[in-house]
Design goal:
alpha+beta
């Protein structure tokens, strides 16, 4: 059985970071009518800044999965941890990678002594609006930012 180890991304992970991000977000392009912002991110700068953590498949690869199969992009602020992106390669769906990444985010925020995690998702990514409340996130507001209609969430870690 393959499990994932979550670790900071390195420059050597850049091709995988881009591949996982693109594979995870590509299906939304037609639905939302624009390229999702994580696909246009400066992955090299995010990795160099220590913002990217990858879930790397370890052990015996199952279903052809090896190396990074998921990732989160995080940024610490004085009063919260911002979850900029969570991406799981479609080939790894249903294996709990996303759940482990979200638990890692909580643990990382606590380790930084931050009281909450914040994120947003596109309003047309309705799957996310079903998932985040299951992990303790609450809707804060809905706001249009340029071409993006976003639902903002927070999770208090008190």
């Amino acid at each position: 059985m393959t499990e994932e180890r979550i670790r900071p991304a390195t420059a050597a992970d850049l091709p995988a970071v881009k591949a996982v991000t693109d594979a995870a977000y590509r299906p939304y392009i037609e639905r939302i009518g624009v390229v999702p912002q994580p696909m246009e991110a400066d992955h090299a700068a995010d990795v160099a800044a220590g913002k990217v953590f990858v879930a790397e498949a370890t052990g015996e690869p199952a279903a052809g999965l090896a190396g990074p199969v998921g990732l989160v992009v995080l940024e610490a602020f004085p009063d919260h941890l911002y979850l900029d992106s969570v991406a799981v390669h479609p080939d790894a769906h249903g294996r709990g990678v996303g759940r482990r990444l979200l638990r890692f985010v909580d643990a990382h925020a606590r380790a930084l002594d931050l009281p909450e995690v914040r994120l947003y998702t596109n309003a047309l990514m309705w799957e996310n609006q079903e998932i985040y409340p299951k992990y303790g996130y609450e809707v804060v507001e809905r706001r249009v930012d340029g071409p993006y209609d976003r639902v903002h969430y927070r999770k208090r870690l008190l």
